[in-house]
Amino acid sequence: MTEVGVEERKLKVRKIKRTRREAKYKHYPVVEDHSTAAQEYWEPIVNTGLWAIKGYQILKGPCGGGTVEEALKREPKEFMVIDRAAFALYSHSYGLVSPFFRGLLEGKLKGTKCPKCGATYCPPRAHCWNPKCRVADCEWVDLPLTGVIHTFTVQCLAAAPFEHQLPFSMGWVKIDGADTTLAMMFHIPPRELFIGQKVKIKFVPKEQRKGDLTDCYAVAVPGQKVPKWACLQKDPEKLESLEASMKQTIQFIKKRYGIDNSPEVRGW
Amino acid sequence: MARDEKVAICNGGIFRPDLWHGENAEEGVATAYQDLLKNVPNLTADDIDALCMSYFSDHLNGQLCMGWIIQDYLGLHNKPGYRVESGGSTSIDAIVNAYYMIKSGMFDVILIPGWEWMCEVSVAATNEMIASAADTDWDFPVGGYYNAFYAALEVRHMQLYGETCEDLGKIAVKNHNNSTHWPYSQWVSQHGTAPITLDDYWKNRLVCWPYRVLNCALMSEGACVLLMATESKARRFTDTPMWITGVGLGTDSMRPGDRTADFAYEGMKDEAKIYPDFVDPIKTPYPDMANFASLHIAAKRAYPQAGITNPLKELDLVELFAPYDGVELALYEDMMLCPRGEGKTLIREGVVEYGGECPSNLSGGLTASGHPVGATSLYYTLFLYWQLAGKIKEKCGPNGLQVPDARKALITGHGGTGCQGAVVTFESE
Ligand SMILES: [Zn+2]
């Protein structure tokens, strides 16, 4: 593309007016709309042209079949590598389990219960998956904001949108009264984490809630002793090496994002 | 009514997995196909009845219907062909589908081209696109890339059955060092052939506790083709056919967190009693978030077909699809090489090392040798083909890890967190 062509394209992009979000299917009038930010974020990207080639590089390196050794011995070739950015904005329905996510906005946890086998689901299922129940319709039940850690991990490496929160632990919690387990973030120091730990479910401040699972997180019920059998405790070396990695991660995040995620500042 | 004739893997061709290739996917597949044509000089396009295309993602390359490009690029676009896709299961599923196609009696000879070009987008973006194979409403939004899912599964297994980080380190060292004997390995391309030690493992960067970089599958680009045929046709292409003796498929819940009330598997295994007493009881004790019911039931379906009753004794080697090393350990159990909870003893006692009773992942596997999803299980099936044909030294050089007189082998593959899995057993003549 010539210089002029590039300029013309830029102008064209600028001239496009902000468009109103198109209405969805006529049978579904909008009842509430919290999508402006997404729309504003998205529009300029879409208007640059989804499949437009944005740039290129020339790389030089091995080619051809055979073993690594054979390939490296061959005369290297030059390859042209183009940059393309293709996206879409998906409008996806939470379906019949939407009440769960609306519950999060209100700081509540809801589950569903099968009227036939009595299984209680959180994450909720609109229909029971027990083969004996023939996909029975489930009923909504309110669940307490307490549960037990079923399993966990501590992340020291992640990509956007989670990277700036590193290091953090997350895992699956069996909400009291439920038979399945729900994934969520933990605000618990890894040194104190164990399977079987009793937790309370907390919510971020109301104005920050988005109606997804990042609205809630688990904290430890105070006063619990970390048992000797806990897999992180059985071997002190493991715990030390984990904590050393976490320290490195905290420094990395400080440097990259200017955010201090050390436990003294964050509180967990 | 399935046809009676046996089905064989007749040979294959390889375009090695690597972090990046100048060639694009169709050129990589063509290079692998060239390799097959070299290995089977009398194979012509007329011999091929149909193609079964194996590739996982449309996102990674922004190209739908990549299979059509491949078929036309190889000049095989006048043949019946279709794509198989099931996440990480894709490439083993392609083998299973080709097997069904031949067993149906409709086709005699099938070509499986498999590939994946995973590095056109950034590693972070690839991780994110792969994570969209998990439940994007429930698991992905809370920090859940597969690193985290699998790490949490391993923590549960570790807590229930007592393996240690060192056991995971030993598996990593075993697989990386095996990989240095496979001259097509991505590890070799990136890091050379020097062996690694447990000390290197402890210094390696932690990703998601307990997994370090060395415990996790690689991002790869690469291609592989396999040729499959009926017994009568196979003889034209190979003197050393590798017979498929058993095929099993299984699926499990999308969300691993639902496996505490996994009713479809209720009663399959009465294992509540082997739970340690400090763990709260759950609705269904198997698979929990610790083992892989999809793969266990796949093995239970495949073994009787193959007449296998004592897998540890009867199998000469196994290639276990392990994107994370704890999966390999859990699969020792789910493949019934040992009872549930005893996977750790197989790595501690050297049973799964080269020279052991049942070596596992002599190829190096996904964490060391490469994991271009649509080609992955094809590579390691081809590796088994060379093993059972006694051709490892010929293919890999004097350092190749040939299992002497290998006759029976197994490969597993799965997608998601074991949401879908397959087991295929093989036997030489
Ligand atoms: Zn039910």
Detailed description of the structure:
- The complex is a heterodimer of chains A (268) and B (429).
- Chain A has 268 residues and is of the alpha+beta class.
- Chain A folds into 3 domains: 3-48 and 58-84, no CATH class; 94-143, no CATH class; 145-266, OB fold (Dihydrolipoamide Acetyltransferase, E2P), CATH 2.40.50.
- In chain A, 24% of the residues lie in helices and 24% in strands.
- Chain A has a 5-stranded mixed beta barrel. In chain A, strands 4-3-5 form a 3-stranded antiparallel beta sheet. Chain A has a two-stranded antiparallel ribbon with strand order 1-2.
- The longest helix of chain A has 22 residues, at 236-257.
- In chain B, α3 crosses α15 (373-388).
- The longest helix of chain B is centred in the middle third of the chain and has 16 residues, at 146-161.
- In chain B, the strands form 2 sheets. A 9-stranded mixed beta sheet of chain B has the order 3-2-4-7-1-8-11-10-9, with helices on both faces.
- Chain B has a domain at 7-121 and 220-237: Peroxisomal Thiolase, Chain A, domain 1.
- By secondary structure, chain B is of the alpha/beta class.
- Chain B has helices spanning 25-39, 66-73, 90-103, 123-131, 146-161, 165-179, 186-191, 198-203, 231-237, 293-306, 311-314, 325-334, 343-348, 365-368, 373-388, 392-396, and strands at 7-18, 50-54, 81-84, 109-117, 206-209, 211-212, 221-230, 242-251, 317-319, 408-415, 420-427.
- At the A-B interface, α3, β2, β6, β7 and β8 of A face β1, α1, α4, α5 and β5 of B.
- β6 of chain A pairs antiparallel with β5 (206-209) of chain B.
- Zinc ion (ZN) binds at residues 114, 116-117, 119, 128, 130, 133, 136 of chain A.
- Zinc ion is lined by residues 114, 116-117, 119, 128, 130, 133, 136 of chain A.
